[in-house]
Design brief:
Blueprint (H helix, E strand, L loop, with lengths): L7 H23 L3 E12 L5 E3 L6 E8 L13 E4 L6 E6 L11 E7 L2 E17 L2 E2 L6 E9 L2 E7 H5 L4 E3 L2 E2 L7 E5 L1 E2 L6 E2 L5 E9 L19
Parallel strand pairs: 1-4, 7-11, 8-12
Antiparallel strand pairs: 1-3, 2-7, 3-6, 5-7, 7-10, 9-16, 10-15, 11-14, 13-16
Amino acid sequence: MNLRPRYPFTALIALVIAFGLWYAVAGQRREKISERQAVVPLTLTNVPQDLVITNNVPESVSLRLRGALSHELNPNHPIEVVLDLSGAQPGTRTYPIKESEITLPPHVSVVAIDPPEIELTIERLATKVVPVHPVTEGTPAAGFVLAGVRTVPATLLVQGPQSVLDRLTAIETTPVSIEGAITSVEAVVQARLPHPLLRLATKTPILLMADIIPAPTPTPVPRRRKRRPRRRK
């Protein structure tokens, strides 16, 4: 009986692969199971375009990991908590963080999550036409006055959460100096949005125009002539 393999080179390759798999599995069994605390980033995905989150959201989540952690975690595949908000609705709701939403390396599990849930306040995006309030600094030169100041355009279309837009009455511009001016001043300015969640719906440049004119000459007040007392006859 001939026990020699028909294809010895193929059999040798199969033997090497089998030995490698056995060694890898045996190595994992020999490696000690440990726990490690890790602070990982929190990412919110699939936020509907017509909604906006208005409360503060934590940037990271603390995880206690358990598994074969004797080696450093692979920096090319970092652990991350990904919270899917595709079904979000306006209002304040609590979203639990599930282990299925955490990208974990093989043979690693989650023991604890802190915080275990995230509270989000979500509002619909709205738009509002808001007047522009031009801002100037300084005073004209002696003998000149500021007759008026205006912007083109006079109003802007602003987008943001409805609750923020309801409190918005005007938008100030970046200041323009008229110190020592003897002629009218024109400058392109920027809008100062008072809330980080507000955005301009259009990118129209804003032109500020300050009208400087000579100070009017004061009109002299005529003196009244004193009446002389009449002499008695």
